[in-house]
């Protein structure tokens, strides 16, 4: 069967594939500790589910505006104004089928063939694939543990060419968990303005931060950077709503308008009653977010203590998200081989090569403590057998 060339240029998402595999193995009764997908194990908070059920009963079952329910767009704009110091109105917001879809939409409306997108590595694996699908070219800028996996302003400046259209920043980061400081973001913002490019800030992990780290949006450092910033976010991680598929993109009116046009011919509105769940998430008490964050903080401590005890693995301390990204090079294995062998021992992890770093693996600790303890014990025995 002859398929379009564009789909031949990308590979299926490895995070989703490994997660599906681990879930299928568990369903078959195989004893697997899964550190694969970045998916909180908590149920969606009851008041959010109740709001969606109420919306269903109230007949919110019809087509809605392609841009999203106006009430939700307004609530998102208010959240961005008050929490993130970003002066958006409802017209600057589009509700999308998850954060992933907001980024895909953006690439589709921004990129001309050959336009370059600067992506610091390690990166979330879908960024480069979305760029490719939109006909753009990813310019990967490697970073390492010495710089806490953060791109420097000098690196960003050096990566810019006349073809650069967009810079992708993700803080807290998937897969490394690193959080850029306000000073670091300000310095990067200056380069974005100087080079007159756009930046998309993926803030999906903004609520999951530790040790007093400060979450700041790169768009908040003045009018010049604000005009060049697009923010991607969603409800999946903060409110444990992964399966609901509700996210959003915020940015300059022209970009959002174009994205609404695209969405009006592709997905139309996001599931109407799911949007009412998202509205309740924003407008109700945020205690549930803090409760989950505290649980992640406890798990993170256990995972980091364990990693420190395993000789041969090194890992900078992540300040956000729910991932650790240890370096496994002392085992003599590359990431795919390591993860395949580890799976045989009953632990699912994602090979770093998927994120542009073959010497590392990603472990998600968005899982219960019993699984963490059992899985880390297995990892320790496995690594000790190699070194
Ligand atoms: N973003 C999560 C992860 O990296 C969920 C899976 C995906 O969409 O990639 O594990």
Observed structural traits:
alpha/beta, Aspartate Aminotransferase, domain 2, binds glutamic acid, 14 helices, 12 strands
How is this structure best described in words?
The chain has a 7-stranded mixed β-sheet with strand order 2-8-7-6-5-3-4, with helices on both faces. The protein has a 3-stranded antiparallel β-sheet with strand order 9-12-11. It contains 14 helices and 12 strands. The model has no long low-confidence stretch (mean pLDDT 97). It is an alpha/beta fold and 387 residues long. It is globular, with a radius of gyration of 20 Å. Strand 5 (164-170), helix 8 (182-195) and strand 6 (198-202) form a beta-alpha-beta unit. The longest helix has 23 residues, at 287-309. Helix content is 43%, strand content 13%. It folds into 2 domains: 5-44 and 287-386, Alpha-Beta Complex (Aspartate Aminotransferase, domain 1), CATH 3.90.1150; 61-283, Aspartate Aminotransferase, domain 2 (3-Layer(aba) Sandwich), CATH 3.40.640. Helix 3 (46-57) packs across helix 11 (272-283), helix 5 runs parallel beside helix 6 (126-133) and helix 12 (287-309) packs parallel to helix 14 (369-386). The structure holds glutamic acid. Residues 13, 15-16, 37-39, 100, 124, 126, 174 line the site of glutamic acid.
């Amino acid at each position: 069967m002859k398929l379009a060339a564009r789909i031949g240029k990308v590979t299926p998402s490895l995070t989703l594939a490994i997660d599906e595999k681990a879930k299928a193995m568990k369903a078959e009764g195989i004893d697997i500790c899964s550190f694969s997908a970045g998916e909180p194990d908590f149920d969606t908070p009851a008041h959010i589910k109740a709001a969606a059920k109420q919306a269903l009963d109230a007949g919110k079952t019809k087509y809605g505006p392609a841009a999203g329910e106006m009430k939700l767009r307004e609530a998102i704009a208010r959240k961005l104004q008050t929490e993130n110091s970003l002066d958006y109105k409802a017209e600057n917001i589009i509700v999308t089928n998850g954060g992933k879809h907001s980024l895909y939409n953006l690439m589709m409306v921004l990129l001309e063939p050959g336009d370059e997108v600067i992506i610091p590595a390690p990166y979330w694996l879908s960024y480069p694939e979305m760029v490719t699908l939109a006909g753009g070219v990813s310019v990967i800028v490697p970073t390492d543990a010495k710089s806490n996996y953060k791109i420097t302003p000098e690196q960003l400046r050096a990566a810019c060419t006349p073809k650069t259209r967009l810079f992708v920043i993700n803080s807290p980061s998937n897969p490394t968990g690193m959080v850029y400081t306000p000073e670091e973001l300000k310095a990067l913002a200056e380069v974005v303005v100087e080079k007159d490019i756009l930046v998309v800030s993926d803030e999906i992990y903004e609520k999951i931060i530790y040790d007093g780290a400060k979450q700041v949006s790169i768009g908040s450092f003045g009018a010049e950077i604000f005009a060049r910033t697009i923010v991607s976010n969603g409800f999946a991680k903060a409110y444990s709503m992964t399966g609901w598929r509700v996210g959003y993109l915020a940015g300059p009116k022209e970009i959002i308008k174009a994205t609404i046009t695209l969405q009006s011919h592709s997905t139309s509105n996001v599931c109407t009653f799911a949007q009412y769940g998202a509205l309740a998430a924003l407008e109700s008490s945020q205690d549930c977010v803090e409760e989950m964050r505290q649980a992640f903080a406890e798990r993170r401590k256990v995972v980091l203590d364990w990693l420190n005890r395993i000789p041969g693995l090194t890992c900078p301390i992540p300040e956000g998200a729910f991932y650790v990204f240890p370096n496994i090079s002392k085992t003599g294995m590359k990431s795919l081989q390591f993860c395949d062998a580890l799976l045989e021992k009953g632990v699912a992890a994602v090979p770093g090569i998927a994120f542009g770093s073959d010497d590392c693996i990603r472990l998600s600790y968005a899982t219960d403590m019993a699984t963490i303890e059992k899985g880390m014990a297995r990892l320790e025995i496995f690594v000790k057998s190699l070194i």
